[in-house]
Amino acid sequence: MRLVIIGGGILGTAHAWAAVTRGHEVVHLEREREARGATVRNFGLVWVSGRAPGELAIALRSRELWEEIGGRVSGVGFRPAGSITLARTAAELAVAEAAAAGPTAAERGFTLLDPEQVRRVNPALRGDFLAGLHCATDAAVESRRALPALRAYLTGTGRYTFHEGVEARAVTDTGSGAVVLDDHGRRFEADVVVHCPGAAHSGLTRELAGDLPVRRVRLQMMQTEPLGEPLTTAIADGDSFRYYPGFAGPALDALAATQSQTATAAEHRMQLLCVQRLHGGLTIGDTHEYTEPFGFDVDEAPYEHLTEVTEAFLGRPLPRVVRRWAGVYSQSVDPGAVCIRVRAADHVWVVTGPGGRGMTLGPAIGADTADLLDL
């Protein structure tokens, strides 16, 4: 089959990977010279630990696919580093204990570690904490390098063509297939068109699928110079328990009742996530903003909070921050949906809305679409 995929982010690229590796031909259109949205503005984390029970199977499948992809395309920088969520209060420790004793703990690779055990796993953590919830199934990829590496591999198959700086203007279902018109006046004929618009919910997306059950979420993050030593796992703080449905339960309800977040963390709906890039620097975040219109600038208070918490865990000053950024991603508002997948016409599909799970779940979402299309 011949597919035209619109959107060069992680979802579009994951769909291209699924199609090409199953023997099909893909023409891939991206309106920018390079994907510049949430795909490259994230941690690169493949985050199994906090997924809801109903999402655990797809998260584990995606983790397996990332490992397979990493074995074939070294440039994606896949590494099975795991993560440690560090508890600093008794209430946070209770959530970690409940997770480590929960019915899916073995599947997630959960182990509760005391401070000495934490430091054996991740010697860079010399600061103060009560315990750490280790998740062996979490992993990381290089978000800024993964997509070019994947495209280079796919191009080498002879069944993949990437068009950068090309905007799809119209998609027409012909009855036996579909035709895409771009802003250069070209026609691309396909058996199937898959539109992966990211956070672009208007324009072509609305023309094809109407108003979807999605919202946009804004975040702030930062990047440091090299740490100078390995951070062997990703790390998170106890505030992250509040944002991942896999930790829901009485212990989390008790944590929420303590109102133990700082004023800054509560105002900006913050959690600490931190992962070391292959160049040695740390990617650190993040915030959550849900009400549009979003600001065009970034607030300094969240960065000060993230710096303070990370330094408390490391027991040392952070390296110099070299860049800060904001990003926007598309999130399904259907609590039971991993993403929004709509059949806009017989041969046209729209896929978006994985929320902050795009990098984690992208390969499995692409594979599920391919299964649905019987590719």
UniProtKB/TrEMBL annotation:
<dbReference type="Pfam" id="PF01266">
    <property type="entry name" value="DAO"/>
</dbReference>
<protein>
    <submittedName>
        <fullName>TIGR03364 family FAD-dependent oxidoreductase</fullName>
    </submittedName>
</protein>
<dbReference type="InterPro" id="IPR017741">
    <property type="entry name" value="FAD-dependent_OxRdtase_HpnW"/>
</dbReference>
<dbReference type="InterPro" id="IPR006076">
    <property type="entry name" value="FAD-dep_OxRdtase"/>
</dbReference>
<dbReference type="InterPro" id="IPR036188">
    <property type="entry name" value="FAD/NAD-bd_sf"/>
</dbReference>
<feature type="domain" description="FAD dependent oxidoreductase">
    <location>
        <begin position="3"/>
        <end position="372"/>
    </location>
</feature>
<comment type="similarity">
    <text>Belongs to the DadA oxidoreductase family.</text>
</comment>
<keyword id="KW-0285">Flavoprotein</keyword>
<keyword id="KW-0560">Oxidoreductase</keyword>
